[in-house]
């Protein structure tokens, strides 16, 4: 009961330093992945900044985060201390797995970080630009094999959107799914596939070393310090960002939501969060409140329509 | 500077007192988490990552490497003593190792595993230092078609572990293959055979199946059979150290295991489990006394244990040279590198040479520490076997249950007001399956092999055919794939030929007897 009173007090006086709430952050993935790292970076920052006295991270891996999401929705209803990390991949996974729980059943708090998806070819490839890729796709869509992360994820969706945007048939996309960006990288380096498509950081060191050629990045704007055009600049009307977010439990009160949002905002503006983002190469794409909600709805609709066109969702 | 000079410089850095202490902490923690159920090296490194943020990069990476190697050492202990493999790479070790332990030879089994791990770790770490760039080129030449050929080879050679009846072995294998289909299909994202149960979406966990079949199944069998319950288990028979004969029979398997493990570990889709299977079959093929296999052959412990440690060092090849993590622990170590602003990849060896060589040198140091730490512990471990049987098996049940709960046993199921762990239900169901298989004389290892290799083979075959747009000729398009198929064919024909020749001898002898 004390916590509720405290939470109410805090939300009533946002300008005051918030009290040290305990948080349990669920990373719906195995240790080591992007969501796990996001959760652990949050843990570090929330504790280092004194925003929270005690932060625990739990891992519930599986099925693009939908297993963790289902457990979160079932077990933390109304729990002010429970948070879950998620992202764009979860949007696709909910649709392809026909997940019984969706993001409507949690309380989205904010988008935290984002990453561009990189479209690369081996240095020895004949493809020099996005135009070459577009021409190859138009000539024979199936002959262009794409290596990327799991089926229905951000990489696959982007490959489908590109194929559609250049005027080829998205149902013919020859997408080879690997269980992570790393394995996909090996397939591209080994020349097993035509194109690699995954998060920019997965390919970054090989691009710098000249082993891979970066054709374009998927975001609306260029990636700072990276010499590559966006897809839009290259004449392909696609803009995708692989974002990560944090959400709170279903059934919490508006006051509780406001208190959590204030804590997260404080964390995002802290020096330790900024330093952690920089060292990991993540881009701050903080977006909260109604703007985030609108963006989320838009992303879900766009994802559903392209997954239908690729044929992954009936 | 040449490689030797760089390595010597790295050794000097690693031998600083501070770094030695980090390595010691690492190997001790690693051994502990290797032995304890439900907590693996990946989770340990993840938990320590925030703590090390304040340490210097070299120190914390050295500690992680110690945990990584230590976990590989510790994993074999429960396999050998309790028939409870904690990870997929030590499943094969349980086959012969536990048989040895039950004959009072637990000491030599643990010793050959520890020394084999040490030698494999040494060879593989040196290989990492000297030949990593070439190994990585070889590993990258493996595309889906080559991986599929490797899986075919593994399937064929592993069938040697089927025991006496091919029909029973194949039946067990197909149970495993069937279980392997469960879960989300990677290529299409569609769920298969999950019956709407979310816990099944990610497939059957290999360790749950292995622990259930080995530990629970065995406990049930002992409990069901009065004669077996009264049978004495010899805790120690003869020396707890290896005899001269043990050494003679172990050293070649150690070397062979290292040679198999290192390159397979370096392959992005290889893995320590595949390496340990191949090593086991190799030892069985080349053994002087193949009839001992299945009854506690020391070669069957020495080879696979060396292979799984060499493969652990092998996974560092793509991690350091390509920035490519191929195991969960490697993925977290990569996060550790990035935390310090280091980018593993082709430029790491040039940009941060001193750090890389200090890391490689500390792997050597950690390896020495592990053997010093582990050999004296053997005397203590084998005492476990003097525990009276009902207590020992009671303990194994607790151990297996806690391990499963700790690893993935969230209370995810719900039946009315009662929540339960679905993973534990699976453990129990597979335990009963394990009992029935034993009861009717079916081998259990092929079930686990099917679950591990089946999905890998399927994914690689489908990737290969997708890339070639359905042209099956891609499967034999490269010299590597063809070579692997030839080796697989030899693995089938060679024992047949030897048997025929053997029978010829016998027939000849019979004929001469008649004279």
Describe what is shown at a glance.
Chain A has helices at 2-12, 34-48, 66-75, 88-96, 130-139, 154-165, 181-189, 200-208, 254-268, 271-280, 289-310, and strands at 22-27, 54-59, 82-87, 107-115, 117-122, 145-148, 174-177, 195-199, 212-217, 242-248, 283-288.
Topology:
The complex is a heterodimer of chains A (314) and B (515).
Chain A: H1 2-12, E1 22-27, H2 34-48, E2 54-59, H3 66-75, E3 82-87, H4 88-96, E4 107-115, E5 117-122, H5 130-139, E6 145-148, H6 154-165, E7 174-177, H7 181-189, E8 195-199, H8 200-208, E9 212-217, E10 242-248, H9 254-268, H10 271-280, E11 283-288, H11 289-310
Parallel strand pairs in A: 1-2, 1-3, 6-7, 6-8
Antiparallel strand pairs in A: 3-10, 4-10, 4-11, 5-8, 5-9
Helix pairs in contact in A: 1-9, 4-11
Chain B: H1 3-14, H2 17-35, H3 41-52, H4 57-82, H5 91-140, H6 144-158, H7 166-181, E1 183-184, E2 191-192, H8 206-224, H9 226-230, H10 244-266, H11 272-286, H12 299-314, H13 316-322, H14 328-339, H15 348-351, H16 353-382, H17 389-408, E3 413-415, E4 418-420, H18 422-439, H19 445-467, H20 479-514
Antiparallel strand pairs in B: 1-2, 3-4
Protein name (chain A): C4-dicarboxylate ABC transporter substrate-binding protein
Pfam families (chain A): TctC (PF03401)
Organism (chain A): Devosia soli
